[in-house]
Every structure is written in structure tokens, then in C-alpha cells.
Specification:
By secondary structure, the chain is α+β, with helices and mostly antiparallel strands. Helix content is 21%, strand content 32%. The strands form 3 sheets. Strands 1, 2, 3, 4, 5, 6, 10 and 13 form an 8-stranded antiparallel beta sheet that branches. It has a 3-stranded antiparallel beta sheet with strand order 9-8-11, with no helix packed on it. A hairpin with a 7-residue loop joins strand 3 and strand 4. The mean pLDDT is 92.
């Protein structure tokens, strides 16, 4: 599979599921080095902080956040000074309408070859598909926990759009959980896709202007052991519309 295949698939269906073997091959080609066993990248999810902005009172979500920018064609993504995450209530009726100052992503993740390859992958795919070359990019590290018999909700706001142009969801780790299926709906609320991100670097790409997406709640398998779902969400938005 080549980048052009990803562009064609996303252009045809408005969403695309990439299995880990496909995704890591594409990332490795971009990085010119094997991608997929980067412990610095994978281990950074063990140092997230609790989300303090959950309007449902939930204590099941941990996260970190950062913003990048691409200004011109051919340039790499550049880390921006820290800024809050904001969504209107139109896009996030549960937690929107307020500037949310999440804990910032740590330097070791910013410096990883894996993250650089993921950002360039998104840049190449979405620039070819849209013709836009200037991007406002946000990174969200999530850990959703299921404990004490309670559900963990990866998308507590329900099936939604993020108010951006494109979304990448990268599976990092699943531990002792059931469900957590990604669901895709068209703008007429018809379900057009469902799949489970299982393996590290299984990946979903979504055209956020043309699709809604959500993730079903997770449950513990073994009630006596920790249970969580770790993902990286990367959103791309045309800088002219920011």
C-alpha cells in the first residue's frame, strides 16, 4: 500500500481503517527507519493526567494535549506554544463551550520519530486529498479506564464530529477490555462502518466534514485487574478556518 492508495480509499468512502501492518509499513517508509516498537512513544501513555473538564463527573479519562502547525507545502509540522483546546457546544454538547487547559504532552513524545512520521503521514494524505497545505493540528493522548464495574466512555459526547477537516485515531494499547468499537455514520445518520482497533498502530482516518464517528463504551474483562484503552487522536484543520 502507498500513500496514494490511502488518499484514494479515504476519498472514496470518507473513512478508512488501516491494519497495523499497513500503517507501520507506511510510517516506516516516511521515517526511513522501522516504526512500530518505539517504547518511548508507547510508554508515554503511562504518564497522563486526569481530565478535569468532564461535565458528566466521570473520572475514567486521562489525557494530554498539544498543538502543531504546518504553514507551507513541503514543510514539517512545528510544535506551537501551548494553547487550550476549544470546541463549540454544536460539536461537543457535553464538554464544549469552554477553553480546556489539559496537561501538555511531554517532550519525549514530541521528540519521537514515531510522532514525526504520524504527523507527516497525515500531512501527505490530507494535503493530497484536499489541496490544502496549511494545517492547524491538535494532538490528544487519551487513556480511557474501566474499573469498579463501571463503563469507560471513549466518546462520552456520543457520535459526533470534531469540527475539523480530518481525524486520525491511532491505537496504542488495549488492556483487559471488551468492546470499544469505532462506528462511522454519514451526514444522514446512517451507519456506514464499524471496526475494532485492536493492535498497536491499527488506525482510523475520518473525513470530519462528511462523517460522524463514535466509540462504544469499554468494560473490564477481569474485574480484579486494571483495564484501559490508549489512543492518540490527531486532528487536521485548514489554518484559514481557525
Amino acid at each position: 500500500m502507498q500513500i496514494t492508495d490511502v488518499v484514494a480509499g479515504l476519498g472514496a468512502d470518507d473513512f478508512l481503517f488501516l491494519e497495523s501492518v499497513q500503517a507501520t509499513a507506511l510510517l516506516s517508509a516516511i521515517a526511513a527507519t522501522p516504526i512500530g516498537d518505539d517504547q518511548v512513544f508507547l510508554d508515554s501513555w503511562s504518564r497522563l493526567e486526569e481530565d478535569q473538564y468532564m461535565a458528566d463527573g466521570g473520572k475514567y479519562r486521562k489525557r494530554r494535549h498539544a498543538t502543531y502547525a504546518i504553514w507551507n507545502a513541503g514543510e514539517r509540522a512545528q510544535l506551537m506554544p501551548y494553547q487550550p483546546h476549544y470546541q463549540t457546544v454544536d460539536y461537543n454538547p457535553l464538554n464544549g463551550g469552554v477553553a480546556r487547559y489539559f496537561a501538555p504532552i511531554l517532550d519525549d513524545l514530541h521528540q519521537s520519530m514515531t510522532l514525526a512520521a504520524l504527523l507527516e503521514f497525515g500531512n501527505q494524505v490530507f494535503s493530497q486529498l484536499s489541496g490544502n497545505h496549511q494545517w492547524h493540528i491538535e494532538l490528544h493522548q487519551f487513556r480511557i479506564e474501566a474499573r469498579d464495574g463501571r463503563l469507560g466512555k471513549p466518546t462520552p459526547e456520543g457520535v459526533h464530529r470534531d469540527g475539523v477537516d480530518f481525524v486520525i485515531v491511532v491505537m496504542v494499547k488495549r488492556v483487559n477490555i471488551d468492546s470499544g468499537a469505532t462506528t462511522i455514520f454519514d451526514t444522514d445518520n446512517r451507519q456506514i462502518g464499524e471496526f475494532l482497533l485492536r493492535q498497536p498502530f491499527d488506525m482510523a482516518l475520518v473525513n470530519d466534514r462528511r462523517c460522524y464517528h463514535g466509540v462504544t463504551p469499554i468494560t473490564q474483562i477481569d474485574a480484579g485487574a486494571e483495564a484501559f484503552r490508549d489512543v492518540l487522536v490527531i486532528t487536521f484543520k485548514n489554518r484559514e478556518s481557525v
